[in-house]
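the two lines:
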Amino acid sequence: EAQVTQNPRYLITVTGKKLTVTCSQNMNHEYMSWYRQDPGLGLRQIYYSMNVEVTDKGDVPEGYKVSRKEKRNFPLILESPSPNQTSLYFCASSPGTSGIRRIYEQYFGPGTRLTVT
Amino acid sequence: GIQVEQSPPDLILQEGANSTLRCNFSDSVNNLQWFHQNPWGQLINLFYIPSGTKQNGRLSATTVATERYSLLYISSSQTTDSGVYFCAVDTLNSGGYQKVTFGTGTKLQVIP
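prediction for all of em together
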């Protein structure tokens, strides 16, 4: 089944404890992206990747890191989480090609609800 | 950056009624997509519609890119249509890469 998976789905952690949220897709998509969703602020793009080893900042990259060492995986790293990073996080992928630099239809993972105390 | 506004922000419908949701964007876009976020938080693709009109069952969408808006039509609404509807556009940033901006959302409640 074609899908985007995220792990963990739920996480409660403490300030400063490094964590990684994994994202994997099995559709051979080139484009992958991370979003956070907050009440009153909607969905905002954190980082995106046009292809392996090609990443760029979205609207709210502060406090996050990403890497794209292989096509199927795009982990989101919080080196020192803070309470303002408590949010619902979504990973997405799209068959957009880096050559054309265009995003096609995006497919979203189920979301990761993160609480930082 | 680009602004993406949706209207109305909230909508309550009686089951069986029709509705139109609107998405306005402030600049040229390459693509536009409509999503439904169900009450469990899952984001479901509805339409990928950079221009023109598409239909899928009781839902249809129209994008007029030259006038910078898109419409989502819901006919014969059902309680399962409840949730939040988002449009999302992608634009070219200064580095030559595509970034995505979501609209503000329309929260729909369909009552029996």
